[in-house]
Every structure is written in C-alpha cells, then in structure tokens.
Amino acid sequence: MTLLCATLLGLAATALATKLEARASSTSSATATSSGSLPAITITGNAFYSGSDRFYIRGIDYQPGGSSSPVDPLADYSTCSRDIPYFKQLGLNTIRVYTVDNSANHDQCMGALADAGIYLALDINTPKYSLNRGDPSQSYNPTYLQSIFATVDAFAGYSNTLLFFSGNEVINAQNTTTAAPYIKAVTRDMKQYISERGYRKIPVGYSAADVSQNQYSTAQYMDCGEAQTISDFYAINNYEWCDPSSFSQAGWDTLVQQYSNYSLPLFFSEYGCITNTRTFAETTALYQTDMTAVFSGGLVYQYSEEGAGYGIVSISGNTVTPIGSQFSDLQSALNSTSNPSGNGGAQTSSGSEQSCPASSADWSISPFTGNALPATPSGAEQYFKSGAGTGPGLTGSGSQNSGGGSTVTASAGAGSATATYGSGSASGTSSASASASHTGAAWSLKSREAGGVGAVGFGVVVGLSFLFGAALMY
Ligand SMILES: *[C@@H]1O[C@H](CO)[C@@H](O)[C@H](O)[C@H]1NC(C)=O
Ligand SMILES: *[C@@H]1O[C@H](CO)[C@@H](O)[C@H](O)[C@H]1NC(C)=O
Ligand SMILES: *[C@@H]1O[C@H](CO)[C@@H](O)[C@H](O)[C@H]1NC(C)=O
Predict the structure, then answer these.
(1) Average pLDDT for 432-459
(2) According to the model, what pLDDT value does residue 414 have?
(3) Hey, what domains does the chain have and what are their CATH numbers?
(4) Cβ neighbours around 223 below 10 Å, total
(5) pTM for the complete prediction?
(6) Residue 335 CB less than 6 A away from ligand 3
C-alpha cells in the first residue's frame, strides 16, 4: 500500500552473516530457558534450513493491539494461547512479533509456539527504544543498545527464535537513507553481542520498506563491506501483488531477476495487498520455483484487524472471528501449496558480497561514505563483556534522547572508535527535530487510520508497521 508518511522513527534488528565463520562457541549464557524441541534454523548459501531440509517461512505478522499500542503478545499466556490454535489451523510455521517486553518472561508462550511447530521472527526495537531516523546519531546510544541486547538475552535461549530484525522500515522514503549506516551498525553490534555472549548464531537482518528508489541499494549496502557488518538475511515488505494479479503483473519477476545474484536469504517480512478482493493467490505463487530460487517465503500482514483493513480475524476479548473468507482462503492457499522438491533452486555456496552502493541522489549516507560505519557508542562495551542485565521493558523512559550517541566513525574491525566525523552533529537541534518528528508521526498514523491507505502505484510504497514505533514514542 502507499503511505505518504514522513515519520522519523524506526525500528532496528540484526542478523548473523553466513559469511562470517562461526566463532568459537562458548558456553551459552542465555538467560531464557530452552523451550520445545524445534530444531534451530540455520543458513546455507541464500536459504534457511531445518536440518538438511530447506525451510520456507509460512508466516503471519502478529500484532494484536495494533501498531499504536505497544503490547507484548508473548508475555501473556492467555493472549498467545488464544491465537496459537488459529496459527495451527492456518498451517503456519512462523509468526513475526513487532514489540516485546524484555523485562517479562516468555517461557510459556515460546513453549506453546514450539509445541505447535512455530518459530518467531522478532523485531528487536520498541517504540521507546529504537533509532530515530530524523536524528540517528543521537539515538544510537548505550541506553538503546542495552535495551536491544536485553531483548536478545530474553530470546536467545529458545530454539524456535528464528531470527531478529535489527530494524523495520527505518528508511521509509527516498531521502531517509542517512539512517542506513546506523541500521547497519546496530546489526553489527547485535551480531557481535550474540557472538560474545556465546549464543547460537541467530540470524540478524533488516526489514525494508518497499521504496523503489533505494530498496535494492539498501540490500546491497547490508551485504557489503567487512564480514562482521554484513547482515545474515534481507527482508522486504512487499504489497505489489493485488488480486487478481500475476508473477509478472506484480513485478515479482523483476524482483527475482534483480536479486538473482544476491547471496543472503531473502523473504517478504510483510505481504498481503488489500486493494480489490484479497484471495491470497500470491501465497500460492510465493512457493513456486520461479520465486524459491531467490525467496524463502514470507509473512502475511497481518493476523488481527487493527483498523486499517489488513487483519484476517477480529478479536474481541477471548473471541477470535475470521473476517470474510480471508482466513479460509489463506488456509487453503497454504495447504494446497507444497514446498518445491529438493532445495527449490537455492544457491548452496555462500556467494560473493555486493559492492557498497555509490552515493547518488537516491543514496546518501552522509557524513559516511562507502562501508564506513559509526563506532559503537562508548559506554556500551560493558554489555558485550558482562551482558546487558535487566531490560527496561515497555515502560522505561526511552532511549532516543538519553545522550551518549555515537559521533565517531568506526575503524576497520567491529565498532571501535577512531576519528570524529563532525563535531556536535548529534547535539544542538536534537530536541527540536525529535519533537517535530514525533508530531509528524502521530499525525501520519491518525491520517492513515482514518482511511488514508491509498492504492498501489506510487514510487514509494511503505508498509504499515513502521508507524508502530512512531505513534507512542513519547
Ligand atoms: C524528505 O522529503 C520530504 C518530502 O519532500 C520532506 O518533507 C522531508 O522533510 C524530507 N526529509 C529529510 C530528512 O530531508
Ligand atoms: C549476475 O551475475 C552474472 C555473472 O557475474 C552477471 O552476468 C549478471 O549481470 C548478474 N545479474 C544481476 C541482476 O546482477
Ligand atoms: C494440508 O492439510 C493436510 C491435512 O491436515 C495435511 O496432512 C497436509 O500436510 C497439509 N498440506 C500442506 C502443504 O500444508
């Protein structure tokens, strides 16, 4: 769908690059207990695997309460246990959750998901603890890293934690690519944290808005430069297939062509256009061999109806009611579509990394160039060494203006600081820009929920979920 919103806040996530050789794994220091018996998913070449079988994401985005209210559906067993039977009925193997409370316990819900054969794709950010695309330097600070590392601690021990998103739609327009070095730095830091804490190699990567001017450049950027800064996967929020449509009409043929040499696993972190009548014909298309050489499935946006027309069920208290025929259409699309035989055309070698995109009218990462990244903010080193400690949860005071933002460029090798890139860029105007961005974000959300979802066709196609993180920022 098209949303002409210029919000400034975003979410971040990370992944482990398959190109990075496994570091010596030390004794796990996971604080969470392991649940269920689902095998941990691994990456080879450009695909996910469960043991020796290719793993395709058959998923749905799970955001009960919507983007405007930060609730953790996995902290409350009465919530997740109400919905898991429906996930099973749909034949899902993955859910995506956009916000969790890193001070809560998730054993019961993660165990119940594992029992149902379901993995979790988790956004690492919360509305209060996330990058601010309007002021990324200021918001990339130790308080922020402590929160996202605490979330890693909370979920690393579950074998059905499939992956972490280091960010979601932080780049949401042609002109917000200056946030890219920060997203990539967060990805790097999460990978380093996972490694130094001795966790298994849980994949970390970015979930990109479908912005035509920079979506592919962003993909290249997440797969260029030093190994420890390269994402483990790349995910796209894609709403181009609006029934009735086809592989070529939706532009999926072009997408596959464009990404044919991309060496990381790819999938749709959101899909499910609602223009015309949804029949989920694209779900069937997603698991055909013309897609599966390059893509590994996707997640429908979204499970519950939250006011914008994308839900397939409505929820009232403990009652879940399918909306129209969407639930059964998705169920039968998934059930009638088997995975391709063999490995579905995936590349089995790790492939070569991309060149970092050259700067252009559509790709500005100033004040950085090439593969230079911001240094890990000083004050965060202790977390790598000793763990993040207790997370702030959803009610903490937030990180975006908490100070200590990174103002230096990293040297070769992860995260260490060498040179300043411009004094004072993180200070001075920060509070003004933060409050301006917040106003814009809140306004955008209202405008969309009042019916502002337009038709597909513009160059900038931004999904809905980025609004979460914006609305309740302060
Ligand atoms: C990006 O462009 C939009 C629309 O032209 C404008 O409103 C916004 O201020 C710009 N943002 C930045 C960070 O330049
Ligand atoms: C993929 O790589 C081949 C061989 O290097 C090259 O000829 C082709 O143009 C590349 N395709 C894309 C879409 O980059
Ligand atoms: C479809 O449902 C049947 C009956 O529950 C099940 O045995 C089969 O594995 C399902 N097929 C797919 C592709 O999910």
Answers:
(1) 25
(2) 64
(3) 2-28+438-467 (no CATH), 42-386 (3.20.20.80)
(4) 25
(5) 0.83
(6) yes
